[in-house]
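Weekly structure sync, notes
Attendees: PL (lead), two postdocs, one rotation student
Agenda item 3: pending single-chain targets
PL asked that the sequence for the first pending target be pasted directly into the notes so everyone works from the same version. It is reproduced below exactly as submitted, 381 residues in total.
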Amino acid sequence: MKQIADDCYYLTDDSDLASAAESWRSAKVLGIDTEFIRVDTFYPIPALLQISNGAQCWLIDVLTINNFSPLIEILTASHITKVIHAASEDLEVFDRLFGTLPTPLFDTQIAAALCGHGASMGYSRLVQTLLDIELSKDQCRSDWLARPLTNEQEHYACLDVLYLPELYQQLAQTLAQLQRTLWLEEEMMRQLERGREQRSTNYSLEKINNAWRLNATERQRLWHLVLGRDALARQHNKARNHIAKDFALLELARRPPAHLAALYSIEGLHPSAVRQFGAQLLQLAQNVTHDLLCPPLATPLSKAENDYVKKLRAVTEQIAHHLQLPPELLVKKIELENIVRQYLAKQSADSIALPERFSGWRASVIGSALRDEMIRWGDNT
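Predicted structure, written out during the meeting:
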């Protein structure tokens, strides 16, 4: 076990990890972070894991360690709260490496938002806000797969995890004072559910510009292409855009080519991608199946629909201001749009199915207010 500073250790083999894990078993809280590379791959390439108990930190070299079972025991230990900042990508790394996720989880970014510090606050800014400590960001884009790591990389990696337990203490205390601890626990359950589902989650058609303009046949072909691209991306560990960009799939859906050579003239398909994946893409475009029907695609809102969305947005912002919360934490724009579409289709607030996220604390905080607003619309018609 290499000591790289007074309070930081670099673990490079199985015995190092086993020894460190033994010392973590008595902890109640551990800060966790990951460093990885994802430039042209579908999956993140893990390079380093960091753990801190608030006084010391450990850098775990995933490129040289083989037996991670002592760490997995810590990650799943129910008596140790795992503290991560903006955990979604870290969860993907753990799922990729170990097939499991750290639980119980405390995401300091979400906790900070629930405490009134704004949405999506970065780790460095949160450390400065709560602890009055300024951190350097000069290694953010570093090559974490390079070995040996530089002194600067090691220092950055240590600081990136060192303060998480202290942030946890402050945020957990504030959440308790605001009576929002259960809110955070609910958010963590959803985040872990998303983390478990993301390995099989397909790309959303909503992300493809102008997909709604396609006719039913073209839309089904596009969905077939999207599913096929996802399958190729996972199989070959290639970024989706390195197989075919979104607008290339849109073009293939509109005008499926008759032969392979035609793919070279489609913008958004790199020649190397055509050579490697062209035959599969051509087959996907030409042989559309209906085994998995294309999900419905919403058209852009009309002016009248937008006016209703603005009314619900005003209700949301009023409540968010009162609670000192970011409005987007209460309800997302796309959720408001879907609620309005349902209302105008049914002309009844009672028959509207609010998003699944509204089954918990949001039901009383924002869900009831949105329904009351829509009931007023009905009373005024």
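Discussion points:
- The beta strands are 2-5, 8-11, 29-37, 45-52, 57-61, 81-84, 105-107.
- The domain at 303-379 is CATH 1.10.150.80 (DNA polymerase; domain 1).
Action: rotation student to compare against the earlier draft before next sync.
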